[in-house]
Design brief:
The chain is an alpha/beta fold and 479 residues long. The protein is built from 17 helices and 22 strands. It folds into three domains: 79 residues, Udp-n-acetylmuramoylalanyl-d-glutamate--2,6- Diaminopimelate Ligase, Chain: A, domain 1 (3-Layer(aba) Sandwich), CATH 3.40.1390.10; 212 residues, UDP-N-acetylmuramoyl-L-alanine:D-glutamate ligase (3-Layer(aba) Sandwich); 156 residues, Mur ligase, C-terminal domain (Protein-Tyrosine Phosphatase, Chain A), CATH 3.90.190. The chain is 31% helix and 22% strand. The strands form four sheets. It has a nine-stranded mixed sheet, sandwiched between helices. The longest helix has 16 residues. It is globular and about 70 Å long. It holds the Pfam family Mur_ligase_C.
Length: 479
């Protein structure tokens, strides 16, 4: 199936097409490019023009370039434009214009990727649904997601993120959503904003892209909710709220267990119960927002409430797995909660609540009782209050339910110092140091949470823990 013909892409971008090619997809990475893709030679850390020859050798239908790179023949299948990123944006805008899809855009300080994935999973049961496979939510990710959208798409889910003021509105106008949802507003990227109110104003800019008559889906439980509501009202959007304080989609009860969340809610006069096969109050809130968005898109929210049970968090965002420590004894296992992709005070609070609700297994490890173990990496981009925000984690009520907390990074040292001495685990400056000690800090029966900002690199600890079974076999006496 053709996604872009040479002539269509040339008209969309204002570029000059060489050859009569047809592209079945759009790619920016030669490592994952598929035969038939249009390769987009973006300039980022490296110049994509350096990889055009390789892309064509791998079967790319053509390449979107601003000049003919060295090593590429003059008559190669190309789309030549003045500016590659600007052309990708135009390609995305053209893809959006040619479809009758109902479009939902999602942003938020926490949970936008998980919510995007939830929406994709429930909507694909109701129609042809398009969404990015990865967290493509920035200045090139959004136009790339749009450019990949087939013309016959019925539902599209677009994730929109930001690091600095002024980034969300242009991307929202490009996506032109019928529904725009804000999952939450939290202390993230505070280095670029004066306060959390500034973050709320930036998140609310997503409503500037709404189609006429569009719907704003807003978390009702935030200190900054009034800012979000005011922005939506000023733009004439239809407003629907969700949360405990909402009168539209009212969260009435959340029950957490080791591997699931049961959510009870009230939608108008109707009671709703749905289950998510992963633990987390934040997942309950996002799931309720998904039902609201499904309704606003004209979908079937009753079907969505059933189908949401099949969703699982993306890798690194709360996924839970069982790790075997001894291949000869299937009882010698520990549970690993991988939440190593991102962290701020709000998501950290949610993750620790999940860990506190988990049930370790007693009597199977070297220590008689199973433990709740937290391995926490630095929360980055929090600005001048980062010391206090890390230290205050020690005040969370769920800390009382944890047995030991290991801290990774110079910022997490503030938390380690604030913890009660019996709960202090190891404190290291780098994730690599703790990864090298991974086999010494876990035991059969434990439930282990790894959480931190991506830049803290605690994913190294996750990988080391997954391999710890083989190490433990060789070092059974190591305490």
């Amino acid at each position: 199936m053709s996604l872009w013909t040479a002539s269509d892409a040339a008209v969309a971008t204002g570029g000059r097409a060489q050859g009569n090619w047809q592209a079945a997809g759009v790619s920016i990475d030669t490592r994952t490019i598929a035969p038939g893709d249009l390769f987009v030679a973006l300039k980022d850390v490296r110049d994509g023009h350096d990889f055009v020859a390789q892309a064509l050798e791998k079967g790319a239908a053509a390449a979107l370039v601003s000049y003919i790179p060295a090593g590429v023949r003059a008559d190669a299948p190309l789309l030549i434009v003045d500016d590659v990123l600007a052309a990708l944006e135009k390609l995305g805008q053209a893809a959006r214009a040619r479809t009758d899809a109902r479009v939902v855009a999602v942003t938020g300080s926490v949970g936008k990727t998980s919510t995007k994935e939830m929406l994709r999973d429930v909507l694909r049961a109701q129609g042809r649904t398009h969404a990015a496979e990865a967290s493509y939510n920035n200045h090139w990710g959004v136009p790339l997601t749009l450019a990949r959208m087939p013309a016959d798409t019925e539902y599209a889910v677009i994730e929109i993120g930001m690091n600095h003021p002024g980034e969300i509105a242009p991307l929202a106008r490009m996506a032109r959503p019928h529904v725009a949802m804000i999952t939450t507003v939290a202390a993230a990227h505070l280095e670029a904003f004066e306060n959390i109110e500034g973050i709320a104003e930036e998140k609310a800019a997503i409503f500037e892209g709404l189609e006429p008559g569009g719907t704003a889906i807003i978390n009702a439980d935030l200190p900054t909710t009034p800012i979000l509501l005011e922005k939506a009202r000023s733009l004439g959007a239809k407003i629907v709220t969700f949360g405990e304080a909402s009168h539209d989609y009212t969260l009435t009860r959340v029950s957490l267990s080791d591997d699931k969340t049961v959510v009870q809610a009230q939608v108008g006069d109707t009671g709703v119960i749905f289950k998510i096969n992963s633990a987390g109050r934040h997942f309950a809130m996002n799931g309720l927002g998904v039902l609201a968005a499904t309704d606003a898109l004209g979908g079937d929210s009753d079907m969505a409430a059933m189908d949401i049970s099949g969703w699982q968090p993306p890798a690194g965002r709360g996924t839970r797995e069982v790790v075997a420590l001894d291949e000869a004894d299937e009882d010698l296992t520990f549970d690993l909660i991988d939440d190593a992709f991102n962290a701020n005070p709000t998501s950290m609070t949610a993750a620790l609540e999940v860990l506190a609700a988990a049930t370790p297994k007693d009597g199977i490890g070297r220590v008689s009782k199973g433990r709740r173990v937290a391995i926490l990496g630095d929360m980055l981009e929090l600005g001048p209050d980062e010391r206090t925000l890390h230290k205050d984690i020690a005040k969370l009520p769920d800390i009382a339910e944890l047995h030991v907390i290991h801290c990774v990074g110079p910022r997490m040292r503030y938390l380690w110092q604030a913890l009660p001495p019996p709960k202090r685990g190891r404190q290291v400056d780098t994730a690599r140091e703790l990864a090298d000690q991974a086999h010494r800090i876990i035991d059969a029966g434990d439930v282990v949470l790894v959480k931190g900002s991506k830049g803290s690199r605690v994913s190294l600890v996750v990988e080391a823990l997954r391999k710890a079974g083989r190490v433990m076999d060789a070092e059974k006496g190591d305490a």
